[in-house]
Structure formats: C-alpha cells, structure tokens
Write a structure and sequence with these properties.
The chain is an alpha+beta fold. It has 2 domains: 247 residues, Bira Bifunctional Protein, Domain 2 (BirA Bifunctional Protein, domain 2); 90 residues, Anticodon-binding domain (Rossmann fold), CATH 3.40.50. The chain contains 15 helices and 16 strands. An 8-stranded mixed sheet has the order 1-5-6-11-10-9-7-8, with helices on both faces. Strands 13-12-14-15-16 form a 5-stranded mixed sheet, with helices on both faces. Helix 12 links the parallel strand 12 and strand 13. Helix 1 crosses helix 11. The longest helix has 18 residues. 38% of the residues are buried. Homodimer. This is Histidine--tRNA ligase. It is found in: Cytoplasm. Keywords: Aminoacyl-tRNA synthetase, ATP-binding, Cytoplasm, Ligase, Nucleotide-binding, Protein biosynthesis.
Length: 420
C-alpha cells in the first residue's frame, strides 16, 4: 500500500448506503409526482455556454458574479457547470422547437448543479435537485398547479414541518416605478459599500439580505405587493384562491425575492426552520420574458427546483424516513460450492423474472451469512445446504416472522412470485 489518500472535494457530499437509499427515495418520489402530473423527462448537459447563464440568470446576480464554475475548454470556449436548470431547459426547448407543439410544454429533470459557495451545513458546491418547468401558458391556474405539486412532493416523502412563503414580483408594467422608489429609499440608509452597490444594480436583492442589522433598516421599505399593476394583482389573487381551494397552506411574505433575475409575478419558497440559516428547501416562480431573452418566442413559463440534499436534512431533523425502498426482495444463502452453483441459477432466473435478488459469496459460516441476509433488508431468504440439495429442495425463510418452509427448487420461483 502507498501513503496516498483521497477524499471528496470540499463541499461535495458522497451518498453511500444506507443514506443513498434515502437519497434515491426522495429523488424518485419527487420525479414520480411530477410525472403523475403530466411532466415528461428531459436530460440536460452538465455544462453549457457561459453566456447562456449570464444572459438568462442575470449578469448582476451573485450566482453569475461569484458562484459559477466557469472554465475555458481546449477549443477556447467559455463553458460553465450548470448552476441551475431553467436556463438550460429553455435553451433546449428553443433549440428543439418544443414550443411549436402542444402547450404548455411540461418537463421534469433531476441531477447535480454547481455553485462555488462557502460550504456549510446544507450548503454544498454540488447540490442535487429535482426541477419542473411548464412553458407556454400565462395562466394563474398553472402557477397554482406547480405550487401544489411541490407541496405534494414534500408531503409524499413524509415531510411536515415546512412553511410555504408566497409573493408576487409584479411585471414590466409596475416593476420599474417600484424599483426607483425602492432605490430612493435604500440610498438614504447607512448601508455598507457592497450592499450599496447591490442596491444600484438590483435593489430587490437587498430585501433578501438575512443580516439582522440590514433587516432592521428595511422595516419601513416600500413593498412590491403594494405597487402591483392591476393585471399582476388579479393574477396573484387567482393563485391564492386556487391554493385555498386545494388546501395548500401558505404565508404571504412581501419581502420574498428569488436569487435569479428572470422571475416575474408569482414567486414562492419552501422553508424548514429545522435547518438553521440554510432554511430554504425548494422554490420557484414565473418567468414571463426569459424565452424571448434567450432568442425564442415571447412565451411565459413557471417552474421550481426542489433541493434533494436539503430535503434529506429536513427529514433527518424531523426524525422521519423517506421510506427508502427495500434493497432486495430475496437473498440467497448457499452452503457449499455445489449449492452455490445451483442457487446462482435460481438467483439468475428470479432476476430475469423481475424479482430483486442477491446472494452471499465467500466461505462464511451460516451465522455470518444470515447476518448478511438480515442486513440486506430482504423479505425472504433462500438457504440451500447439503440436505436440501440432495432432496431437490430449498429452505425459504420469511425474514419478518422468521417462519421457514421447504419448497422444491423447481417451484421456488412461482412460490416467491406469488408472495411478493
């Protein structure tokens, strides 16, 4: 052996068993809920042209100015590991003319995203998300559907202690005048130099500053909800009414601001207080001008991104399991080389029939291999020893009630399929 050792890069988590089973359960549950709502899978590149994110996310955002993993490839092209999913989805929709078919285009995606941030509990440099986008229809009913879907995703994994914050960011009719009014207010405050700079570039982002001393200064700040255009206000009222009809609880947060520039009208965030400073577990909103900004049609859209990492931490804080799937249904225990050969054939046939099956290897004794069977989480254990082999049978043990019965090798597959 050498003295060399390696560990995962800073801020990049590994998910190993048994936590990886929880991870898969959360991700697959979120994806399944989206597919049940009519969303189809889209697979996106891990990296894109840097200009896509600069233009789509917003050149003045912290994501673009401070947090992107950007590098030049060997062809001299500037590329960036994706920091979020919406811009890439919109690029794909435009490139493949998906917006020329039936609307809305409803897409779901999952995978890793990358932000160069200071790692801490709940904040990673590689973060895992499940996201959806519904593109092509400006309808408040679609906003309510998207929010209710996200709420259902969290409920489906057993999460309960979260809060849904809801607001509206207005539209092109009311935002400019409000922006000027907010800037005038912020210029009178004794803000630090960096916050003053942010106030000039994107004053709404100052409202999202989590520092208590800044929030204290913002108590009397003008609120966008008080300056909505008639159309934005009507849109927001319909969204709230539908969420009430759906039984989705929410809290109006007039200072809610998403970290990306493309959001308009409805915006929302799911918050879990059990996570401390990094309390956001997912969120999203409407983006009515993004497609045109990226070279496509003037079509609206709405979507969300749900953090798988943060959801796992929230479940842990509540002491709740996501209902991780059983690793295998059947576990084979051969006692002897000939038993191993015969049982390997049984295992192979069970797998071919769609029964998840594993078996022990090596030369451990019965006590050791039965520990392995127990750890596998299997419902049934097949024990094949010399006597069973001579009789053409196999012992089938129910790992829940520990009852055991003898079944012929020729009938064991049908026996198990009937009970699983």
């Amino acid at each position: 052996m050498t003295d060399v050792s390696f560990s995962a890069p800073k801020g990049v988590p590994d998910y190993v068993p048994p936590v990886s089973r929880e991870f898969l359960a959360v991700r697959e549950t979120f994806t399944h809920e989206a597919q049940r709502a009519g969303f189809e899978h889209i697979e996106l590149p891990i990296f894109e042209d840097t200009h896509l994110f600069a233009r789509g996310v917003g050149e003045s955002t912290d994501v673009v100015t401070k947090e992107m993993y950007t590098f030049e490839d060997r062809g001299g092209r500037s590329v960036t590991l994706r920091p979020e999913g919406t811009a890439g989805v919109m690029r794909a929709v435009i490139e493949h003319n998906l917006d020329r078919g039936q609307l809305p285009v409803k897409l779901v995606y999952s995978g890793p995203f990358f932000r160069y941030e200071r790692p801490q509990a709940g904040r990673y440099r590689q973060l895992q998300q499940v996201g959806v986008e519904a593109i092509g229809v400006d309808d408040p009913a679609l906003d309510a559907e998207i929010i209710a879907l996200a709420d259902r995703c969290y409920k489906s994994v057993g999460l309960t202690g979260y809060r849904l914050d809801l607001s509206s960011l207005g539209d092109a009719e009311c935002r400019p005048a409000y922006r000027e009014k907010l800037q005038a207010f912020l210029r009178k405050l004794p803000l630090d130099e960096e916050t003053q700079r942010r106030a000039e570039i994107n004053p709404l982002r100052v409202l999202d500053d989590k520092r208590p001393e800044v929030q204290e200064m913002l108590v009397d700040a003008p609120l966008l909800l008080d300056h909505l255009s008639n159309s934005s206000r009507e849109h927001f009222e319909v969204v709230k009414g539908l969420l009430d009809d759906f039984g989705v609880s929410y809290t109006i947060n007039p200072k809610l601001v998403r970290g990306l520039d493309y959001y308009t009208k409805t915006c929302f965030e799911f918050v879990h207080e059990g996570l401390g400073a990094q309390s956001g577990i997912g969120g999203g909103g409407r983006y009515d001008g993004l497609m045109a900004q990226l070279g496509g049609q003037e079509l609206s859209g709405i979507g969300f991104g749900l953090g798988v990492d943060r959801t796992l931490l929230a479940l842990e804080a509540e002491g709740v399991s996501a209902g991780s799937p059983r690793r295998v249904d059947v576990y084979g225990v051969p006692l002897g080389s000939e038993a191993k050969r015969v049982l390997a054939g049984v295992v192979n046939n069970l797998r071919a029939a769609g029964v998840s099956t594993d078996m022990s290897y090596g030369d451990r004794g019965l006590k050791g291999v039965m520990k392995g069977a127990s750890r596998s989480g299997a419902r049934y254990c097949l024990v094949l020893g010399e006597q069973e082999l001579a009789d053409g049978n196999v012992a089938v043990r129910d790992m829940n009630n520990h009852e055991q019965e003898t079944v012929s090798l020729s009938a064991v597959q049908a026996f198990l399929e009937e009970r699983l």
